[in-house]
Amino acid sequence: MNPYYQDREAISPEERERELFSRLPALLARARARAPAIAQQLQGVDPEAIRSRPQLERIPVIRKSELLQAQLAMRRQGGPEGQPSSSRVFGGFSTIGWGEALRVFASPGPIYEPESARADYWGFARSLYAAGFRPGDLVYNCFSYHFTPAGSMMETAAHALGCTVFPGGVGQTEQQVQAIADLAPSGYTGTPSFLKIILEKADEQGIGLPSLKRALFSGEAFPPSLRDWFAGRGIDGFQAYGSADLGMIAFETQAREGLVVNEDIILEIVRPGTSQPVPAGEVGEVVVTTLNPDYPLVRFGTGDLSALLAGQSPCGRSNLRIKGWMGRADQTTKVRGMFVHPGQVAGVLKRHPEVGRARLVVSGTPGSDVMILKVELPEPRREVLDQLAASVRELTKLRADIEPVAPGSLPNDGKIIDDIRSYE
């Protein structure tokens, strides 16, 4: 059986670079003609001249915060005759509109993303294959099917691979246990923390779930300690790294040495806050140019930190490898699959003027994250603490413990979110 989803995963790095950069000029030209925000980003740049990485550096990096601001600005302008236009909703970054887009999703911000009818639109089939999924498998998909695209990411990938999908979604742990026991799926897709919860609930109920043999995780860190925990249950777990804007960026293979970059993107590591690539091996921000003709993000700064690994993967795949997710270039962090932004903490403080400074401390281990909001309060009454907890829940969709501290005791260092989790 072919060890690769596609043979091109093992072509020479030189051949891959030629192929990617031979496709890029036409994509840039189409994007400039149909996506006004991309046209603005490409001002003064001849798409035909962008045929190598040094030439790509002529294009400025655009970051997620700028994409959000572009969408917000265009939404405020209003649509024709009160009808929202796709260009306005997507901030001028998409080349397709209503009818061509099968679905529209929303990620925190909110940032809206299109999904077209192209098979494996998000590009995750390759990572499923590397994780051991094969045609004819039943995939138990526990990513959310509403608002965010995670559920569709895995479902469309599984369908492209020739698998059947059960849309488990999130929550309802006891029903999840029963469905897995009844259906006997061979594979799971979702966050590692949720599968751990399901398996522990099954243990409580005395129900065995022996059919699960493999899993593709995303949305959370997946450290070796958690990988070993699943291996002890007979489940071979792998991770994939992606985003709602770009789809799948990189994926883990049997080699377990970093993450191999997806085939239809150009990945760079740049110095945070700049457009300049860093030397190989140095930690910097992940920047991606995707060859997606429907949503052609160009030099898109993810805000995630990583580093390129030297050499080629022992699995035989020849594309670039990254070390994995190494934190955020800003203070944004991910807790139980959800991004938490400094602005959300600021929103809590705006609702509660009696609070001085505040700091959100994220601790614990991946799969068992703990959020504590430390707040400077002169009079930490129980009703105030309860109201603060409710505000955090409403604004972040996550629970946090509230810890009152003395006024003036938090460091005046500008830090709003402090992620002290260990990823060893």
Question: Strands, helices and their partners?
Answer:
Layout: H1 13-34, H2 36-41, H3 53-56, E1 62-63, H4 64-77, H5 86-89, E2 101-107, E3 111-116, H6 125-130, E4 138-141, H7 150-161, E5 164-167, H8 173-183, E6 187-190, H9 192-205, E7 214-217, H10 224-231, E8 236-243, E9 247-251, E10 259-261, E11 265-270, E12 284-290, E13 300-306, E14 308-309, E15 321-322, E16 333-335, E17 338-340, H11 342-351, E18 358-365, E19 368-376, H12 382-396, E20 401-405, E21 417-419
Parallel strand pairs: 1-13, 4-5, 4-6, 6-7, 7-8, 18-21, 19-20
Antiparallel strand pairs: 2-3, 8-9, 9-10, 10-15, 11-12, 12-13, 14-15, 16-17, 18-19
Helix pairs in contact: 8-9, 11-12
Pfam families: AMP-binding
InterPro entries: AMP-bd_C_sf, AMP-dep_synth/lig_dom, ANL_N_sf
Protein name: AMP-binding protein
Brief descriptors of the model:
424 residues; alpha/beta; Rossmann fold; GMP Synthetase, Chain A, domain 3; nine-stranded mixed β-sheet; four-stranded mixed β-sheet; 12 helices; globular
In short:
With 424 residues, this protein is an alpha/beta fold.
How would you sum up this structure, described in words?
By secondary structure, the chain is an alpha/beta fold. Helices cover 30% and strands 24% of the residues. The protein is built from 12 helices and 21 strands. It has helices at residues 13-34, 36-41, 53-56, 64-77, 86-89, 125-130, 150-161, 173-183, 192-205, 224-231, 342-351, 382-396; strands at residues 62-63, 101-107, 111-116, 138-141, 164-167, 187-190, 214-217, 236-243, 247-251, 259-261, 265-270, 284-290, 300-306, 308-309, 321-322, 333-335, 338-340, 358-365, 368-376, 401-405, 417-419. Helix 12 links the parallel strand 19 and strand 20. The two termini are 34 Å apart.
